[in-house]
Specification:
With 363 residues, the protein is an alpha+beta fold. The chain has helices at 42-50, 92-102, 107-121, 136-148, 166-182, 194-200, 218-223, 228-233, 269-273, and strands at 4-13, 16-26, 31-35, 57-62, 65-66, 77-81, 154-158, 186-191, 203-208, 211-216, 240-249, 252-257, 260-263, 279-284, 289-291, 300-309, 314-320, 323-330, 341-346, 352-355. The structure holds adenosine-5'-diphosphate.
């Protein structure tokens, strides 16, 4: 069983705490993505699972076995790095064979394993070449092949697509998803790219400053972010945030900011009533704001600042008072010009509210 369990894992480098109290249970064959900004501790976490970094505290288990003190080669893991880490003087075939030869596997088995991996990855024509004769995408496929031939309990990926251009990255994302179907293996994947996290992960672990912020399916993380940080990190264009004053009278609660007064959505009223007289941060994704000229009901008055024609959609930045609000998914044929006054409608079912001090979601 390729389950991976981290319990209260810490890593300190002198005075720097790189990873703080990380606990995670990754199921057999589950694909979990660690995502967060540079320096949040995701690579260190992965490298501790690999055995490339010692852990300062806590336990890491692979399957039933605690691996805290096991060297990397005894952990039954295979790792793919950003820089491919191929042996430059060896052919693709010998690169693929290297790990198995080290383990004294017979050449006939090595040949079978390589044939199998090459079939999955479509790199049959490359076996005689040296890595420098390969494109970045081909080198990354060879690096994946080197993992596949070993049938490890766990695949570890450290930003494997970061060196590829945007188009190839998108293509390799799809290949990785296909690979998952054909070689189902427990995987931990580190990236700073929230699109990779959303598209590849069964579950996503969002990290910040060495701490886990939220663990959930991509849909849970996107639709129910637990904090302002997660809400702002996941999603592109990013969620809009506006600090609003919470006001109330009787049972009514509304939110006010220069240019906008909106009633609190009915199901949020009780939670927001606790904030009357204070400010909260309202969050709304660009696709949940629409330009609602002529629509009756509560709207926000603004003025178009910038328009961006993306072909498939029009995206605009609207200034509401001094606050910029991005609106996406507008009909690209719609004529909108900078300076034009517009009325915005915010989908009341899709509003998020965050405590300004703790930045935690107000449930
Ligand atoms: P990420 O992968 O999220 O970019 P890392 O795990 O590489 O982040 O680093 C987490 C933190 O630990 C950072 O503040 C980084 O500067 C620090 N760190 C990483 N490796 C070392 C090291 N060998 N010595 C000292 N500090 C380190």
């Amino acid at each position: 069983m390729g389950r991976v369990t981290l319990q209260g894992v810490h890593k300190r480098y002198g005075a720097v705490t790189a990873v703080s109290d990380v606990s995670l249970e990754i199921q057999d064959q589950e694909f979990v993505v660690l995502v967060g900004p540079s320096g949040c501790g995701k690579s260190t976490t992965l490298r501790m699972v690999a055995g490339l970094e010692e852990i300062t505290g806590g336990t890491i288990a692979i399957g039933e076995r605690v691996v805290n003190d096991l060297p990397p080669k005894d952990r039954d893991i295979a790792m793919v790095f950003q820089n491919y880490a191929l042996y430059q003087h060896m052919t693709v075939y010998d690169n693929l064979a290297f790990g198995l030869r080290n383990r004294k596997a017979p050449e006939s088995r090595i040949r079978d394993e390589i044939e199998h991996a090459v079939g999955i990855l479509g790199i049959g024509e490359l076996l005689g070449r040296k890595p420098r004769q390969l494109s970045g995408g081909q080198q990354q496929r060879v690096a994946l092949g080197r993992c596949i031939v070993r049938h490890p309990q766990v695949f570890l990926f450290d930003e494997p697509l970061s060196n590829l251009d945007a188009k190839l990255r998108a293509q390799m994302r799809i290949e990785l998803k296909r690979l998952r179907e054909r070689v189902p293996t427990t995987s931990i994947y580190v990236t700073h790219d929230q699109v990779e996290a959303m598209t590849l992960g069964d579950r996503v672990v969002v990290m910040k400053d060495g701490h886990v912020q939220q663990v959930g399916t991509p849909w849970e993380i996107y639709t129910r972010p637990s904090s302002r940080f997660v809400a702002g990190f996941i999603g592109s264009p990013a969620m809009n945030f506006v600090d609003v004053a919470v006001e109330g009278e009787g049972d009514d609660v509304w939110l006010r900011q220069a240019g906008m007064t909106i009633p609190a959505p009915a199901e949020r009223r009780a939670a927001l009533a606790a904030y009357v007289g204070r400010k909260v941060t309202l969050g709304v994704r660009p696709e949940h704001v629409s330009i609602a000229d002529g629509v009756p009901g509560p709207v926000v008055e603004g003025r178009i600042d910038v328009t961006e024609q993306l072909g498939s959609e029009l995206q605009v930045d609207v200034l509401v008072g001094d606050t910029p609000i991005i609106v996406s998914r507008i009909d690209p044929e719609r004529a909108l010009a900078p300076g034009q006054p517009v009325r915005l409608a915010l989908n009341p079912a899709r509003l998020h509210f965050f405590d300004r001090e703790t930045e935690a979601v107000i449930p």
